[in-house]
Amino acid sequence: MTAFNSALLLAVLLTSHAVQAAPVKDLKPQELAAYLAAHETVVVQFTSADRKCRYCPGAADAYARAVAPAKDPSVKFARVQWPVWHQFPDFGKVEKPFGLPEQLIYSKGEVIGSVNGKPGDARVFLAKVQQARDNPMNSKDRQRAYMLAAQEPAKPMSAHEERLVRIMARKDLLTEFLSICEQRFPKVRSKVRKAHRDWVQSQEKDLDRAAIVMLARSNHEDAKLTLSLADEENGKLQTWVTGDLAILPRKSPEAGDCLKLANSPGSLPPITQTEMMQ
Questions:
Q1: Cut 0.70: pTM above it
Q2: Are 33 and 139 found together in one domain?
Q3: Given 101, 117, 151, which residue is the final one in a domain?
Q4: Are strands 24-27 and 41-48 parallel, antiparallel or unpaired?
Q5: Could you list the pLDDT tens digit for every one of the 278 residues in the chain?
Q6: Quick one: the chain helix, strand, coil %, rounded to 5?
Q7: Domain of 165?
Q8: Domain boundary, last residue among 116, 151, 186
Q9: What CA–CA distance (Å, rounded) separates 11 from 124?
């Protein structure tokens, strides 16, 4: 079993019986050092509410969803954000991120690893956290790895792998939309939650395979490729929602929209062979 598979297996075991969401502690920049000193292992998301930050919108909610299933009480989850994305606060002696959004894994106040970008699937994210704990990196090694990842070309993606990545992208998009429905409309929460759970379970084997594919693709060009596939899926789902489901585009969904979507995952547009990378 590879290290990627081992980390994924551990993440699945840690999350499969979760009964309560892991809390995220919001911290001010000046509070971070004391919080790290008080806890041995801490995962911290650095992000901004600034809409000018290209990848920041939705990152805070995505992080909360990604860590929600975590079960290990020895790992704490925190978030630090600030209003103007490029004006980094003074963190004192605490090591700061290279970019935003970024999740740094600290052990005894020192960074041992990182997960770049907006988190997606919880199993993938928590497996990457576990990888960092199993194979800690110091600051120089992390910076070297970051630079190498920036220079490394994307790995070739087979048609099968692309299909899996697209399924994972759909899962993340559906999760994001339906989580908004659950929060805003308590009366439809149980139906929405069941529909989401049933769809995820129906895709479970492919999602597990997709998680392994995405774990093995960690450099910047790989991330750009998977992001472009996610953007394509987002466009297709928007067309599906406004066309097939006849849900009018609005700034915020209504309860009826949520129920309509919850009843329709089985009619998602197929991923056809013509869309695959040859």
A1: no
A2: yes
A3: 151
A4: unpaired
A5: 444 344 444 344 334 333 346 799 999 999 999 999 999 999 999 999 998 898 898 899 999 999 999 989 999 999 999 999 999 999 988 988 888 999 999 999 999 998 988 888 888 899 999 989 998 987 676 666 666 555 666 677 888 989 998 998 888 888 888 888 888 899 998 998 899 889 989 998 998 888 888 777 766 677 778 878 888 888 888 888 888 888 877 667 788 888 988 888 888 888 864 444 44
A6: 55, 10, 35
A7: 159-275
A8: 151
A9: 8
